[in-house]
Design a protein that fits this description.
This protein has about 475 residues and is an alpha+beta fold. It is built from eleven helices and twelve strands. About 55% of the residues lie in helices and about 15% in strands. The strands form three sheets. Strands 2-1-5-4-3 form a five-stranded antiparallel β-sheet. A five-stranded mixed β-sheet has the order 7-9-10-12-11, covered by helices on one side. A hairpin with a 5-residue loop joins strand 4 and strand 5. The two termini are about 85 Å apart. The structure holds adenosine-5'-triphosphate (ATP) and magnesium ion.
């Protein structure tokens, strides 16, 4: 029973039923019509002979044995001429011995001749005598004195029909077997490929992404397999990224935690003088700040990944943002020995976005320019408008970012070689870029030794997107 539930068996049975129905229809239509045609043509043949004999009798030829025998041998049929002039009983005048199965008795032994005698019109039919079938035609003479009956065996025609029928049955059986084998074999082939896909899906569901799914055929199953393979690769990539992310995040968390733990141990030592104690507390504060920043970044990333980070779309003046950034980082820049200033701010640079998130992106860029460049570097923060976009730019004349590093700086946890300067966790630019995209903007980087520019593009607010008239 279980076998009949497989696609293979169902397809084979369906094919079998269709082929059987077609063959049955052919059988039911072809055989009877073939038989009809052959019998009718034989009836027409004998009717023509009967007509010819009657024509001779109507032309006053005497109804003799010779006349009947002549027609009989010419047409290979049996020709009988009955005399009905004496009315009853009808008598047999003559029987020409051509063909078998002649009428043994009088006219009333043959229903076709009887019908012609009673109706005095031509009559045709098929009669069975001695287990054999005959096509017969009977026709009365004009004066109604004689009935001419011509009969011919149709056994040879029926044999031909039987032969065709026999061959048709054999071909039908062969066609049915072929249909079943083809249907079953073809479906099994498909079923095997489907089972392979099912196993692949099971593997993926169980978290095993290592085995590729290969099916190169161009049909629908091949396309499905390729879609599966793309899904597998994507899931494998995501899984890899997830593992890497957890490993990196825990590593990033461990470092400041170790440092905090170490300093705590040292602080327990009561022999420490005040200066050293203060220095340790200062370092501990740095580590706590680092942990707080990291926790915030990880939270942002998880929200971005889950698509749960809400960003507003308000008009935000980027010139104002650049001013805020300058104020915020002024003392920090003095501490690191950098020169932080504003650059060609265009007062009309109002973009659409979330003020807090725009500030967050700006902070990441300015902080990088101050942290990843040597003291003495100039850092310029500017805002401008270009068509229907506005930009916040952070430019520095530091050593620049190499071509290799430039393609990686936006990756999560990527930290370049900062030449011994303080480094973060490598999440700043990754988050900044994702925030920019969430606000329908983007961040571009162009860098060469002595000039690095990060441009944060945003769509311009509609009130500023109309062309400006000087
Ligand atoms: N203005 C810059 N000049 C030179 N290198 C830079 C500059 N900005 C970024 N980088 C390089 O890109 C790397 C990635 O920057 P990103 O802001 O993502 O991480 P981070 O600053 O190291 O850490 P985080 O920002 O998470 O504290 C930095 O480590 C640094 O090597
Ligand atoms: Mg950074």
């Amino acid at each position: 029973m279980r076998h009949f539930r497989t696609v293979g068996a169902r397809l084979a049975i369906a094919l079998l039923v269709v082929v059987a129905a077609v063959l049955l229809a052919v059988y039911l239509i072809v055989i009877p019509s073939l038989e009809d045609r052959l019998v009718n043509s034989r009836k027409d043949q004998v009717a023509t002979v009967a007509e010819a004999v009657v024509a001779r009798l109507n032309a006053n030829d005497p109804p003799t044995d010779d006349l009947a025998a002549g027609f009989a041998s010419a047409s290979n049929a049996r020709v009988t001429i009955f005399d009905v002039s004496s009315r009853a009983p009808l008598t047999l005048l003559d029987i020409a011995d051509a063909g078998a199965g002649g009428v043994a008795g009088g006219i009333n032994d043959d229903r076709v001749a009887m019908r012609a005698a009673q109706s005095l019109t031509a009559s045709q039919g098929v009669v069975t005598r001695g287990g054999r079938k005959y096509a017969e035609a009977a026709q009365p003479t004009r004066d109604g004195q004689n009935i001419v009956l011509v009969s011919n065996s149709i056994e040879d025609s029926l044999d031909s029909v039987a032969l065709v029928e026999h061959r048709l049955v054999i071909s039908a059986l062969l066609a049915l077997v072929a249909a079943f084998l083809l249907g079953y074999g073809g479906a099994r082939l498909f079923a095997r490929r489907i089972r392979r896909l099912e196993q692949a899906a099971e593997r993926i569901a169980n978290g095993r992404f290592d085995e590729p799914i290969v099916d190169t055929s161009p049909d629908e199953l091949g396309q499905l397999a390729r879609a599966f393979e793309r899904m597998r690769q994507r899931l494998a990539g995501l899984e890899h990224a997830r593992r890497e992310f957890i490993a990196n995040a825990s590593h990033e968390l461990r470092t400041p935690l170790f440092s905090l733990g170490g300093h705590l141990e040292l602080l327990v030592d009561e022999d420490l003088d005040d200066d050293t104690r203060r220095e340790f507390l200062g370092r501990m504060r740095e580590q706590v700040d680092r942990l707080t920043k990291l926790a915030g970044e990880l939270l942002d990333l998880s929200r971005l990944d889950a698509g749960r980070l809400r960003v507003d779309r308000d008009p935000v003046d980027l010139a104002q943002v650049s001013e805020l950034l300058l104020e915020e980082f002024d003392s920090y820049a003095q501490g690191t020995g950098h020169e932080l200033s504003r650059d060609g701010v265009d007062g009309s640079a109002t973009g659409l976005g979330d003020q807090q998130r725009i500030l967050q992106v700006g902070r990441a860029l300015v902080e990088n320019a101050l942290r990843h460049t040597p003291p003495g570097t100039h850092v310029l923060v500017g805002a401008s408008r270009n068509g229907d976009r506005v930009a916040l730019t952070v430019e520095d004349d530091g050593p620049g970012i190499s071509e290799n590093a430039a393609v990686q700086v936006f990756e999560r946890f990527y930290r370049g070689d900062t030449g011994g300067r303080a480094s973060g966790s490598g999440l700043g630019l990754a988050i900044a870029r994702e925030l920019a995209v969430a606000m329908q903007g983007e961040i571009e980087l162009s860098s060469e030794p002595g000039r690095t520019v990060f441009t944060f593009w945003l769509p311009a607010a509609s009130s500023t997107s109309s062309p400006m008239i000087d």
